Amino acid sequence: MGLSVADQLFDEYTEAALLGCLMTFNRALDEVTEILEPRHFGKLHHGAMYAGMLALHRKNSPIDPLILSAEIDAQGNGHIASKAQIFGLDGQVRLANIRAHADRIRDFSILRDLRQMARQLIADVEQEGASGVEMLETVESQLFAMRETATRTDWQSGQEVATRIGPIIEALQESGEAVIGLTSGFDALDKMTRGLHPGDVSLVGARPSMGKTAFGLQIAMHASKRAPVAFFSVEMATDSIGMRAVISEADVNGFRLMSGSQMSEAEVYRVNEGVTSLANSAIYFDDSPRLSPVHVRSKLRRLQAKVGKLGLVVIDYMGLMQSLPEHQRENQTNKIAGISRALKIIAREMAVPFLILSQLNRGPEHQKDKRPAMSDLRDSGALEQDADVVMLLHRDHYYNQEAPADEAEIIVAKQRNGPTGVIRVTWHAPQMKFGAERER
């Protein structure tokens, strides 16, 4: 007694019928190439036939049994798909149904992958010395990769897009506000960028001790008064980040507070206000030292299910994140590129603005004015490519002790949908925070 379709997790007749349809209606390949790859077919010879069809389609060649057979032979797959099997394809599928049949084949492929994953998981779990934590990380990584490849989009008409953006334009005209995204707390920056936008990735690059964490934390605390914020701290423990938030909110000398120095009654009052501000904010910290894009996605989904739609995600910082499993044996440049792309996908998928902190290489130190540029982003040009906005922090006093210690610059080096420029702000080292915009 043969196995059922459900047991086999593929439908031989659907595969054959779809291939027969493609043989008859060559142009229908345009309908399924985004959905199907040769590996998605349950029958090996069907996958070989589809691979041959794709190769012919790329050459703008007609496809019939003789031409396809020759192409399959040229690919070295003649032993997999025989001429009898090719000539025996049945093209009874109606053209209007071809995408539905392609979806069915793809869905079976996903189920087979899941079954194989489950079998391997059982085998790994039963191995002596197996680690539950490592098993979880492996499964999450595999599921992340499967979901990424399974996601696809289709064309959207101008009418559909106009229907969505029309109300946004009307609201802008009625409000007269230049900022349409989540505000950062820096007015000049918000005017230039129009705020932080859902699905966008804003990258903040700086050399060590320039104030990356302070900048990211300030924006996070400001945003948390309007919407829930997720703050991933790979570099510092949560309590240290919390202490910094209190110091910034209280506007007190952090060095004196953390050294146990006697403080005035007014300062104690402000510290208590800072603690209250942190307690009442909708900010959520995660200081996992082993953070990968897979963890980011799963943690954010759980947090969002708990607290509602997130307003902002901050990651401090990217260079300390773990790469995806498929990139772990590659060089650092490819690892960072993989992390960057994965975070961009998560931001778009969740429709939440991401603020990602990144360390710059030593490039600025070789420049006469020491000012950073996008080319100084450490390890990968993919960061520059994937980011919608790139901001670089600079304090001249760090290099030149004769320069004013309270001056800093936010250099908007890239903005996909707006201008670039330099915003001059104040820097308050004892309070670990950036202040108001300075006069030029």
What does this molecule look like?
The protein has helices at 5-8, 12-24, 29-32, 44-58, 65-74, 83-87, 98-125, 132-150, 158-175, 187-193, 212-223, 238-250, 254-258, 265-280, 293-307, 332-350, 382-386; strands at residues 201-206, 229-233, 283-286, 312-316, 354-359, 389-394, 407-415, 421-428, 433-437. By secondary structure, the protein is an alpha/beta fold. It has two domains: 5-130, DNAb Helicase, Chain A (Orthogonal Bundle), CATH 1.10.860; 180-437, Rossmann fold (3-Layer(aba) Sandwich). The chain has a nine-stranded mixed sheet, sandwiched between helices. Helix 16 (332-350) links the parallel strand 4 (312-316) and strand 5 (354-359). Helix 4 (44-58) packs across helix 5 (65-74) and helix 15 (293-307) runs parallel beside helix 16. The chain is elongated, with a radius of gyration of 28 Å. The model has no long low-confidence stretch (mean pLDDT 81).
The CATH architecture of the largest domain is 3-Layer(aba) Sandwich
Residues in helix, %: 40-55%
Q: Would you give the CATH topology of the largest domain?
A: Rossmann fold
Main pleated sheet: 9 strands, mixed
What gross morphology would you assign? elongated
Radius of gyration: 28 Å
Total helical elements: 17
Q: What is the terminal-to-terminal distance?
A: 84 Å
Tally of separate domains: 2
The CATH superfamily of the largest domain appears as P-loop containing nucleotide triphosphate hydrolases
Strands in their spatial order, largest beta sheet:
3-2-4-5-1-6-7-8-9
Strands, total number = 9
What is the strand content? 5-15%
CATH class of the largest domain: Alpha Beta
> Runs with pLDDT <50, length 5+?
none
Structural class based on helices, strands and sheet pairing: alpha/beta
Could you spell the SSE succession in H and E letters? Answer: HHHHHHHHHHEHEHHHEHEHEHEEEE
Q: Report mean pLDDT, rounded to a whole number.
A: 81
